[in-house]
């Protein structure tokens, strides 16, 4: 692996420049050490190449060929802020409103955020700020959950400047969603942003967070002959659940941008704690989502659901690991994919049951709907069961729309296009319907329909 | 091709359905080998026959199932070439098929399907779509016809329904879509005696001078409840014998082997 490590010069130069700028608040200088470890790790790993098992189906080498600069938020650009406000208004219409923390290219935008209605017991704000103000908590957990998940999580750490810190005190008991809104805007030069989210849930706390990703599309400079300027988004989310805490964490892209996105999420689930997550991904030229949930204490439970949609020229790869480390854990996983003509999808779902994890109850399903002959789906369920006292099931299917069902609907006077739309919608809604935040469901369902109705789209790489 | 379906046809305008020499195959295997059938307005016909005789194929071909290739013959529905119409056009023109195996559609509620179907029919007829209130009022009235629990309306179409509930659901859909020609494919199969009575009562309630029905059935017992005007026996892909309701009783007594033995003479005398 070391022999093949590709470490583009832009990352080395960008890292050095950032460190010279001393980006941290005086109380957060300790972050420099974390970044250094991240950079060292990334220097060893490099941008993965397709020979590596975990990256066989997703070629990320285009990322290695672009000279990225670290993004720097809106940078006081009033046009960007105006565009961001317009996008936020659209999101608000889709139910994504206060309390909301807003980030532009990974940097907290206080002027766009609205923390009114933040539930009791929940503290949420800029990670850069918290690294100074809440150093004890942040330092104890940052980098302990996902830092080693992929080379890109190391890269994120190397460029860690800002993001979100959410703390749920034991008094937090509300189901009101707190929105973490990540807006991305292209720059004049290729930009890379590395937002970081750290969530720490104290014993017995309850909460609901929704991570929203949206593009500020109209900021893109007019597409030149080579297409729009590259934008690479590399978010990392780390979640620590103490005993008996319950967290819903959803990641949605209701207004998908066209950036390259490599997203990682790690969760450490404590005794009797429960983590539940849905990932809704409405396509993109190059998307990779890694999720690793470790049930690290007795009686932990975890639900991972996902839905993705790809059209021509789009590629979405979902890699999940559910690691049952201790006895009595329960996990439920349902990932679904809809692949239109020319779309490419990957599901790689690993369930590990450690020798000590007796009485584990794990179920995984991956269901994929191919809407055309030239869509390609790879599904790779993997079970590593290291003790006998477990209940473990998995199922993976790749199929076409059920023509009998289409005929049934048509025989009830429903037109053929409408019949197909209804069935595709129903397929998607099984996951969308699991979103606890009701206002999100209808706009996401509508987005699925709109995307499919829009037909094949030129899937230009950024 | 006049504006069929937009105005109520007067009785006695000619047959509602005329099937002439219909041949159909699936996967290259011919299943219907020249079916002739004439159904007039308001009539109820029963098509009986042994397993594999082509009963369900006939029902599916009439409803427009594309996996069957029509290799010969013609079908006139309200004087118009039925086979030229898509399944949804047939449904909008008043043709309804109750499926032998109603399809489960997870994620699509019964109400949603009924509303989508009904409004498609109404648009086709130049009528306004029903609003939510009008639609729900109509549903409350229609579920009574099949003594169905209203809770089933909100459930996904046929998902987790018992056999009886599925068949009742088919009759409910028929009641809502208000067809001119209903083809009921083995609607009696898999029903216990109570469910059979409920379904039969539903069918009888929907019987009328403006609606014709074709009951496809293997057994005579449905015909105890829904008395047909005509009974036909389909065997080897052809209608080999036709008669009144007594033919069904005779079949019940003698079995289908009786038809198979007598079929050649029947055919020799010309098509029934």
Give a written overview of the molecule.
The complex is a heterodimer of chains A (462) and B (272). Chain A is of the alpha/beta class. Chain A has helices at residues 9-20, 31-45, 61-64, 78-93, 127-133, 135-141, 151-158, 403-410, 416-432, 438-453; strands spanning 69-70, 100-104, 107-108, 122-126, 163-168, 173-184, 191-193, 196-201, 206-215, 231-233, 236-241, 246-255, 260-269, 274-281, 286-295, 301-310, 315-324, 330-339, 344-353, 360-370, 376-385, 390-400. Chain A has one domain (9-453). Chain A contains ten helices and 22 strands. In chain A, strands 1, 4, 5, 7, 8, 10, 11, 13, 15, 17, 19 and 21 form a twelve-stranded mixed sheet that branches. With 272 residues, chain B is α/β, with parallel strands linked by helices. Chain B is built from ten helices and twelve strands. Chain B has a six-stranded mixed sheet with strand order 6-9-10-3-11-12, with helices on both faces. In chain B, strands 2-1-4-5 form a four-stranded antiparallel sheet, covered by helices on one side. In chain B, helix 6 (163-177) runs parallel beside helix 7 (193-205). The two termini of chain B are 29 Å apart. The model of chain B is unreliable at 1-11 and 268-272 (pLDDT under 50). Chains A and B meet through helix 8 and helix 9 of A and helix 2, strand 7 and helix 3 of B.
Q: Give the beta-strand count of chain B.
A: 12
Class derived from helix and strand content of chain A:
alpha/beta
Largest interface: A-B, 24 and 32 residues
The dominant shape of chain A is globular
The general outline of chain B is globular
Main sheet properties of chain B: 6 strands, mixed
Beta fraction of chain B: 25-35%
What is the radius of gyration of chain A computed over CA atoms, rounded to a whole number of angstroms? 21 Å
